[in-house]
Amino acid sequence: MVHLSRRTVLASAAGGAAAALLASQVSQAHAETAPPAALPELNGHDPVQLRWLEGGTPAELAAGTTWGVPWPRGAFAPDQEFSLTTASGERVPVQSWPTGWWPDGSVKWTAHAVSSAAPRGESYRLEAGPATRPATPLTVRSSGGEIVVDTGVVQVVFGRTGDQVVKSMTRGGTVIARAGRLVASRQDQPSGDGATVVKSESFTGFVDSAHVEQSGPVRAVIKVEGKHRKGRRSWLPFVVRFYLYAGSDALRVVHTFMYDGNEQKDFINGLGVRFAVPMRGEPHDRHVRFAGEGDGVLAEAVRGITGLRRDPGAAVRTAQYEGRATPDTSTWDTRVSSRLHLIPTFGDYSLRQLNAHGFEIHKRTKQGHSWLRVDGGRRAEGLAYVGSPTGGLAFGMRDFWKLHPTELEISGAAGDEAQATVWMWSPRAGAMDLRFYHDGLGQDTYPEQLEGLEITYEDYEPGFGTPYGVARTTELTFWALEATPTAQRFTELAAANATPPLLVASPQHTSSAGVFGSWSPVDRSSAAKRELEDKLDLMHRFHREQVDQRSWYGFWDYGDIMHSYDGDRHTWRYDIGGYAWDNSELSTDLWLWYHYLRTGDAQAFRFAEAMTRHTGEVDVYHLGEWRGLGTRHGVQHWGDSAKQVRISNAGYRRFYYFLTADERVGDLLHELVDSDRSFLVLDPSRKIREGEYDPDPRALAVGRTTDWGALAMAWLAEWERNGDPRAREKLVNGATTIAALPNGWAQGGDITYNLYDGRFSATTERSVSIGSLSSVFGLIEVMTELLDLIDDARVKAKWVEFCRLYNATRAEQREATGSDWGSLNLRQAYSRATAYAAVQLDDDGLAERAWRELRTGHAGYPHDHPFTSTRIEGPAVLNPVDEADLSTNASAQFGLAAIQCLALVGDHIE
Length: 910
What we know:
- It is globular, with a radius of gyration of 29 Å.
- The protein has a 20-stranded antiparallel beta sheet that branches.
- Helix content is 27%, strand content 25%.
- By secondary structure, the protein is an alpha+beta fold.
- Helix 8 packs across helix 20 (888-905).
């Protein structure tokens, strides 16, 4: 086996110090987002029409909503104000800010925020002009150890230190909730393994830092970071953002935690957010609400007065059921009012969604007594309420049943103060078991591991299946309500919590802005285009529906899909090495996002959104020496030993950031700026390299296609967000030095990479080394965008040459590069490279060749491939499922190729 030398260890330490310095400098630069001093003459832009993603007019928002809009180069300056009006012309208070810039300093992307208190309609008009301010602007005040945000309706106090992340939520002088804490617990043995003694301990999140990222007038963002602690142990780092909007009574929360434990003895058995809720009034005027599936609501009181042997009166019963204050007890039937103390009070409630197919609600009088089963259902919306007619807290979690095992718990509601907890991992479920799933099967040496790759496609290596450093992000919402909500209002809150409404621009506008490279809105203007559009729709729908049919849900799994299918068992290969979870292999994320951009379809957006939340967190390391690397496809998301930048690829997250201005995804993009330093600590070729790995930061073995394409996308994202200027420097240096090689991106030989400036070493000797995976992890897409941003004839010529030659004849390849490129795979995928070359060279013959390549379907789907499915029923399968001759890799690359061929050479399709 290959071992790291002492020099490597020292270089790694130096690299770590350099990375820390770079991270500090990048953070500083990232905050300084001023555009260039001189701007060209600006052209302006017509008003943009916006609509709600799911259509119609939502009854409620999750506190508010924030969305992104792109603009063509040269339209507006970054300090441009924007006006928002409803379709009827009513002015809407809006807050706007730039999130992306063109190289000339004009604004590329803007973000906009409106509150749930703002006028709502089915559509809006966004245009240049003075912004309308809220009647009562949101304010943020920092003093001592607190940050206080006042929305005009609620006042929320955040702690800068200590174990109370949120000190209080107050409405109209009444404290609705207080002592907001992050809670976690672990046990030292896995559940269900028969251990005679299992030790458990609880932890509380302690704040290390809290600062204001945005301060109004419409939207405020508070970022809190820290770790969970008990005694001397401090672990499970968290990053939590709180979003508040002017005039709103809600607090939106985006919660991220990172696992930094020992998976052999740190089994998390509870992870949640908890508030104390003061209880007011008599127990019969204290209300509990749970949202079930759809519009279902369970409405109960802590002390029920309906269904008793004696009747308190219709007015009393109706008031309690509807959540209003009951009439004074002096008006009740005395046979009830005199015996209230004999009616049990149920202070504890729990809705438990331990799997994707069923939830149950239980209640009990108090700890030490048995739980009663109340009811159950299939998939709960994920919202609960505890309070009274004088105010209470609604609390919930997005994707509640999809991210099981989850729970909404109320305890102590019969006393002076209830505890309301959103459990992102329910204590009622078995403990989280993150251990590797097999014992290594004797694969102790690299030759044995390469043999294993030949049979299960799993790239195993001892110690590499660690979850140390993976993360998960969850979205929650808390409403400080002035009274118990009506059943109708509660269902509206539940819907907003489950699917937060989002405003979007049309595919036509986004396309016309020139963002995200080569794509175009759906076009059914000819029979050939209609046929291809139908195939794209059918293929996308099949993969999307497989999520539910195959129950690809759960805390660590939801958002990903499977890689390959096993037709004999009629199931995806969930248990076979590298054929299981897809982990962004061959750019599935890109395909899903481009499908949404073209169609504007809500289901397409939500499908891609879930994948972005998953693959950016779970499939990537955020701590430790592999920080910035992702894990290749496998049975467990972190299990494979191939840790690569092609998986952590910023290109897969960029869409969601600009379309929603989501700060957490912005963090993920920013994390990747220095991911090239990972080549100092991990040798990607260790299993085939002979001798010692002795990396030199000025001469690293970084691939110029798959590796560099992923790094380039991180630098592109940082550059367009006006972050560290070295990101642009490395991006341009890499592209120009690759283009300077005799054969550009196809050049072979011992070419090395300089970590400090992003340059590749030079050579004058022509040789060829090219693989089929070279451009299918975003290289084509990043180069398409980069060449529109820089004016470099040599870079453009070399890239166009690469695109032209990949699917060319061997004679053409030999003529241009001195040797043929061998038997290359994935030729259908590279039809989009041919199409790009056709446009750049104005070559109709290449355009027609691109369509032939797409239709031939090499390593993909030929023209006559059936994009249809067959229903498989029991007893052949456990549950009825649809089966099709489709694989995720082929679908992703066919989708990307077809989309880009339509955009580039669509007029040659016939």
